[in-house]
Amino acid sequence: MSSPTRGPDDDAYWQRPTPDAAPLGRPPQDQPATPEPPAYPGPPRTDPPAAYWRPPTIATPPPPRHMPAQDMDAIDEAEGSARTVTYGVGLVAGAVAVILICLLCGRALL
pTM of this prediction? Predict the structure, then answer.
C-alpha cells in the first residue's frame, strides 16, 4: 500500500478514523459449529473379589547372623604377598620385553 500523494495534509492518511465513521472490519465469517463432546460415563465397574480371597502372606525371616571378626594382620600379610607377586610378574615381563627389543634392534642394525 502506498501513501496518497494528493495535497499538503500528508498526515491525514495515518490518523485514526473518527468514532462515528463506518467500521472497516472484515466481513463476517461462518464459524464452524463445535460439536458437543460425548459424555464420559467413567471407567467400567470391577467385580468385587471372592469372599474367601486373602492376599498371600510371607513368613517373617529370621534376623541376619553376625559376621565373623576380621583378622587385620592376616589381611595385611595377604596384601603384601600379593603385591610381591605382582611386582615379580611385572619385572619378569619388563625384562623379557627389553631383551626382545634389544634382539630386534640388533637385527635391524646388522
Answer: 0.38
